[in-house]
Design goal:
Blueprint lengths: L2 H16 L30 E5 L5 H13 L2 E4 L10 H14 L17 E9 L2 E2 L2 H8 L6 E8 L4 H11 L4 E2 L3 E4 H5 L3 H17 L4 H4 L11 H10 L8 E10 L2 E10 L7 E10 L7 E6 L1
Helix pairs in contact: 2-7
């Protein structure tokens, strides 16, 4: 059986198990004096999926609640023994030191009874281009072999695909699926939770049909030189991301509820070496909001 088919079957079972059923037998059953009939009451089925997540600022927690409600999943929030510092710069410095030393932070609740679950929805903020360090602690403490692992993340500019790819490397015996991601700016904006709910619903539809990253890219045009309109959309969408030092080289586009762009760019993030990145930008229909950066992927 192919890996994708196994995944579709596994997800179908999880989606069925996630609905809550309650029933009682209202039919009158005749009972004999010698052999009384047995009437069994059906009990609600226990969830076979769990949302495991770490949230630093609250954005990932918002997203985790959306996943939990969408699939009636159990919830398992990872808690640090020693919380990260309260300021952004101090947190980044601590996470950088952890990554360089590969000394992952201790968790209050690193161990999960994974045998209870078929599917693990794994959520995290992106730091340094991939999942934050408490996730390494969780992965080292738990064997996810044979599980369907569905990543989801929040980020400043991107890291969705890179984090999913690292999960696939670290968990070769798990079925790591497509990942969903949303920027902190978008989910924290007015109406951001509703935006995320709609996108998560579409994300689950893609999972159920077995779509891949390549299939989702199928509706975009070939890469082409930028027009003046493309350049204007790029400038508006990246105006808050000067620290990425992005230079657009070419663009592809797709019209769905507005104009969707994927710009191939040269990026020198934080003054670092040049590398290629794909920058996704969405320009809504007139009167329906401002142009926004969806994500940056290397």
């Amino acid at each position: 059986m192919s890996r994708s088919l196994k995944f579709v079957l596994a997800m179908s079972a999880v989606f069925a198990a996630s609905a809550m059923f309650s029933a009682c037998n209202k039919q009158e059953v005749a009972q004999s004096k010698t052999q009384p009939a047995l009437v069994a009451e059906s009990a609600p089925q226990q969830s076979k999926s769990v949302v495991v997540y770490f949230s630093q600022t609250g954005a990932t927690k918002k997203l985790a609640q959306i996943f939990k409600e969408a699939r009636n999943a159990d919830e398992f929030e990872l808690q640090l023994v020693k919380p990260f510092p309260s300021t952004y710069d101090s947190t980044i410095a601590e996470v950088r030191a952890e990554r360089e030393s590969k000394q992952w932070p201790a968790l209050v609740n690193a161990k999960l009874d994974v045998d209870k679950y078929d599917t693990v929805f794994l959520g995290y903020p992106i730091m340094f281009g991939t999942f934050t360090t408490p996730i390494y602690t969780f992965l080292e403490a738990n064997d996810l072999s044979g599980k369907v692992v569905v990543p989801f993340c929040t980020y400043g500019s991107g890291g969705r695909k890179a984090s999913a790819n690292e999960l696939k490397t670290l968990e070769p015996n798990a079925n790591v699926t497509l990942a969903y991601g949303i920027s902190n700016k978008r989910i924290n904006a007015e109406g951001g939770v509703e935006t995320a709910k709609a996108e998560v619903a579409a994300f689950f539809a893609n999972l159920e049909t077995g779509k891949t990253e390549e299939m989702l890219m199928g509706g975009f045009s070939e890469q082409r030189p930028l027009t003046a309109e493309d350049s204007a959309a790029f400038a508006e969408g990246t105006k808050d991301y000067a620290y990425l030092n992005l230079k657009p080289l070419s663009v592809s586009s797709q019209v769905v509820a507005g104009m969707n762009y994927i710009f191939v760019c040269e990026m020198k993030a934080f003054g670092g070496p040049a590398e290629q990145a794909n920058v996704k930008i969405f320009k809504p229909l007139p009167g329906r909001g401002e142009t926004q950066l969806i994500g940056v992927e290397k």
